[in-house]
Amino acid sequence: MTKRDNRSLSVEAQNELRLRTVQYVLSGKTQEEAAKAFQVHEKVVSRWVVTYRKKGFSGLKGRKKGRHKGGALKPWQSAQVVRTIQGRCPDQLKLPFYLWTREAVGELIESRFGVCRAS
User: Fold this and answer.
1) Cβ(34)–Cβ(25) below 8 Å
2) How far apart are the C-alpha atoms of 16 and 7, rounded to whole Å?
3) SS3 46
4) Nearest-angstrom CA–CA distance, 117 and 31
5) Angstrom distance (rounded) from CA 65 to CA 3
6) Left (φ > 0), alpha (ψ -120 to 50) or beta: where does 15 sit?
7) CA–CA separation, 72 vs 78, rounded Å?
8) What is the average pLDDT across 111-115?
9) Half-sphere exposure (CA, 13 Å, Cβ side) for 47?
10) Neighbours of 58 (CB within 10 A)
11) What's 72's DSSP letter?
12) What pTM was computed for the model?
C-alpha cells in the first residue's frame, strides 16, 4: 500500500487528519493500525501521538505555511544598513568582526535600530 503525500492538503484538512488519527490511537487501536487506516507512515503517527501527549490537541494544529511577509526593518532602515556596509569592514564600525557575516550584519542592525533577529 502506498502512502499519501498530505503536504498538498489544506491546513484545515491536515489538522483534521492529525486529530482523527490520534483519536483513533486513543480509542485503543495501535499506531500501526492507525497508519494503515489513514494511509500515513507509522513514524508520523508516532510523532503526532508524542506531540499530543506533550501539548494536547492544540499541539496538533498546523501553522501557517510559507515565508513571513516583510522584514523587521523599514525600507529606509534597510537602505541605511546597505549604505553603512558598502566600502567598510565591520572593525571600522567598532564591531568585533573582520568580515561581513550574517551575525555581523545582525549586530549592526541591533546596535543601530534595536531590532534583533528572532531565534
Assistant:
1) yes
2) 13
3) helix
4) 39
5) 22
6) alpha
7) 10
8) 87
9) 7
10) 8
11) S
12) 0.56
Alpha-carbon gap, residue 78 to 63, rounded angstroms: 28
The sign of the torsion formed by the CA atoms of 74, 77, 83, 84 equals negative
Exposure string for 27-54, b = 16+ CB within 10 A, e = fewer: eeeebeebbeebebeeebbeebbebbee
Residue with cell 501557517: 64
- Cell digits for 39? 494511509
Over its C-alpha atoms, the chain yields an Rg (Å, rounded) of 23
Q: How far is Cα 70 from Cα 14, in angstroms, rounded to an integer?
A: 26
Whether 81 and 72 have beta carbons less than 8 Å apart is answered as no
Which residues have C-beta within 8 Å of that of residue 19, sequence separation ≥ 6? 57, 60
Cell digits for 40? 500515513
Tens digit of each residue's pLDDT (9 = 90 or more) over 59-98: 999 877 777 666 678 899 999 999 999 999 999 999 999 9
Tell the residue number behind the cell numbers 522584514, with chain if given.
Answer: 71
